[in-house]
Fold this protein.
Amino acid sequence: MPLLTGFAEWETLPLLVVLSSFAPGVVIMFLREDQRGLRTTLNMIGATLKLLLVGLMLTGVAAGIEYRWAMTVLPGLELVLIGDALALLFVTLSAVLWMVTTIYAIGYLEGSPNRTRFFGFFSLCVTATTGVAMAGDLFTFVIFYEALTWTTYPLVVHRGSEAAIRAGRLYLIYTLTAGALLIVGAVGLYASAGTLEFVAGGAIDPQLVHENPGRYLIIFFLLLGGVGVKAALFPVHGWLPVAMVAPAPVSALLHAVAVVKAGAFGVIRLLHSVFGIELATEMGVAAVVAAGAAFTIVYGSLRALTQDDLKRRLAFSTVSQLSYITLGAALLLPLAHIGGLVHLVHQGLMKITLFFCAGILAETISVKRVSEMGGVGRRLPLTMIAFTVAALGMIGLPPIAGFVSKWHLGLGGIESGAEWIIPVLLASSLLNAAYFLPILRTAWFDPQNAEWNAAERESWLEADWRLLWPALITAGIALGSGLFANTAWSPLGWTRLIVYGGGL
Amino acid sequence: MLEILLVLTPAVPALIAILWPLQGVRRALVSAAPWAALPALFLALHPGAEGTAFAFPAFFTGLHLAIDSTSKVFLVFTSILWFLAGAFARSYHASDPRKESFFGFFALTMAGNLGLVVAGDVLTAYLCFAVMTFAAYGLVVHERTSPSLRAGRIYIIMAVAGELCILTALFLLGAAAGDAPLFGSELERAWAVLDEEGLATGVGFLVAVGFGVKAGIVPLHLWLPLAHPVAPTAASALLSGAMIKAGLLSWLRFLPAEIGMPALGATLLVAGVGTAFYGVAMGVAQDDPKTVLAYSSVSQMGYMTLGVGLLLLDPSTAPAAAFAVLLYAIHHGTAKGALFLSVGVWDRVAVPARIGSASPRAEKGGAGGSKPLLVILGAALPAAVLTGAPFTSGARAKTALKDALHLVGGGWYPWLDPLLLAAATGTTVLMARFLLALHRREPKGDPAREPSHTRGLALPWVALVALSVGGHSLLPFWFPLPEGIDFPRVLVHLPEATIPVAGGVVLAWIAWMRPGWLGRAGRWRIPAGDLVVPLERTVGGFRKVPANAMAQEVERRLSRIRTAQVWAHARAAWVAERDLFLIRGPVLALLLLALSVGLALLMP
């Protein structure tokens, strides 16, 4: 396939991937509210195009190509987009999940107002996420990271209710403060080390750090404060559960994948591409991050236990599970990095499934609380099968994806000499079981306890197909990622390529 | 060919479970579910099966299936039990509105159980074990009544605790091996590494406890006497016959017989003997025949635990001990399966006396009829087998265990031998208690039921009773005998074999006919689940106080001191999901402080 190979070698592919959601987003902004067909077509074309381009880049990277597209903004400051294995891990995740979430959102928002605004910002938000993933240096990263904040805000307040406005204000306070920290940190880094480049294994000369350790400690924690807010590290996780007032597709994509993953990805970049894990370990900051992540894992799960609102329970679960990624990245040796990175994908797949299902429950039978879920398995069996797969995966039961992450994290922890993470993982599994298994029991085995009509289901299609299929697809991928973990194209296989190929 | 059978062993039941969401094919799947055990049975009976292996590296973390002499033995009785219990359940649940749910969980549990038997590496085994454990929850709570949900809760809590122990052990074994080790030499090397680090015994205990929950050793047995009575009869038969043996099998698979672990071995040995007695003592104090059988399973697992203890105590006795455990597992699996099915047959086939006598015999449905006595007699056969009466598989298994015990040094034999004799006497009493309890249970048979359902219940039962009584005489032609071990004869020491049976019968007779001789001990009753009851009361004591009342009380007492308000806010924020207002201020202040400090310090 010479033609395909020719395309795959195209240097500008990273830019095209970013533009594939930017262009439709901008165009949609100018559409009228009633131009539904055109809006949907644009969305689907963008999503499909992005998938195709990402597919091309995947084949290219697998064949050894490293993409780099740069544009000089100011003398010495470049906007750099790179497409290496690590960037593509995140890009592929967001491209695939953008596709399914778009379908879900079209079904979910059917008939509700302000859809043009919603889909416009939705596309822009994915654009920013893609940019964060492919950012080749800290400058580009900051630009897209800030863009992500601005494009998500309209989605959080989409409903326009008082609670939504309040949540949006809180979200802005958190993320803008974080953004300021990030910028100050970046400026400090540029002033001190003279580089903003992301380099696998670390961009900072260890000698500089040895000469002035205090300065670099401050820079590190400024940058960590910047990315830690979106990564929902304790104690700056507070915005996440509140932002759950957003519509289900927003919670699903943004708060299970795009925004929080941008934060977690930022932590990975900070530890691995800016400082380098060896230097970070030597400075002792990696241990601080690991300890914070471990605490967040347990804290988030503890908070999830007491939530009755399904989405809030899932949100605290996100707080907890996200820190698996941070924890894995903060340990010294490769197996742990594999565990953390692969969880970036696995957690996204499982959590988006859970949010999709929560949305189906709310839309189809108006069930929003765990205590109202009695017997919903009989009304929505396929939804609850998807939910069950994802929930069991979150607990970390084999063969679902979550186990693969946990297994590598555990082995990596022991390998890195951090045996203390085993109790953390066990406590997390236990707590996950404690807040997910009762949901499953209620849904499958308890009698109906809310007002919905059990006979309403007309065919096997228990809900709007645009809501049901995305949930089934992501649950299927989550199961498949575990079942076929050992293949080269699974998230695990790709992560191994990143870590063992020196891409981290 | 053998590889195909090996793959089909877990794949066929797994496929049935995977297709379950498709409602159009459910009826066909229900019919097919029992037959899904047949590939496993063919494989187990195939003379050349040993040594077959299959690897599917792309799957999961590398899926390995293998069959050796141990898996062959477990596979044969496990697959027979799944097949016969499945056939039994088809009739038992013929008019059950939740029949489809039952067979869905049935197929998934079967996939896990059969997969575990042929698993070739630790993670495949863990995967299958987890599938079996969590799918079996659906069988336990099948009735959806409050006792079954309570049993399910205890079951799942203990199962999760067990899983965590196993997972910890797997992490350490995996780290020692560099990756998930295969059973056999790779796992042995991992143990050797752990041994050098001084961790082997600790990890060994984790494995013992983790799988011990399934095997039901005291005090990890709590779920067992609760789950068995509430589960549908076929599921009880599978739990006792096949699934608790999965815990035993996992011990044999995971624990390093070649290295030996004296401390763990001695612990298991003592725990085994204790469990054997404990099961009897609790079992005779029960009224429900299924609970009696559950406690009997606890007691019998004690013998097998003792065998595993012997195996670890002294590597030189390992072959003899492993052989005895295998023989015991196959013996108990078939006998206990038959006993549980007896209860189901009694419930459904035996017609209550007053209905039976009121209607002419001809109207009672031909082959079925009202034959309580026949059911009792049929149940007495596997009961006798279980007591180890001469000429039964029980006699063989106990002889093998005793032979292994002879080999072990360290002064264990002189005091274990009489203890085992006493425990065997207890087993006889327990079986007598079971038969009495069964006899007293109200039969619920419907005289107007379909004859085909009667056949569907009776045939699997008769087959399993026949197998438990006579099957062992076929074993010498098939059983993989280890080197230097003879197949134990059915009658080695006549006095030793008859004393427990005769003694037990006498004791049972006294308890039944002359309860006065026993004083208060004759009226001893313990609620099913024994230790669970005080435990639940303790936990429930905390939970039953209304949260609000407790909070108000706390706040009232604390309101006198100033810090109390802070505390009350913190608590309210935690409970009422308002953490923001508590931490927003300080956190933002911290962020801003960090910002300004950063700016100040970075100024050149």
Notes: The mean pLDDT of chain A is 89. The two ends of chain A are 31 Å apart (CA to CA).
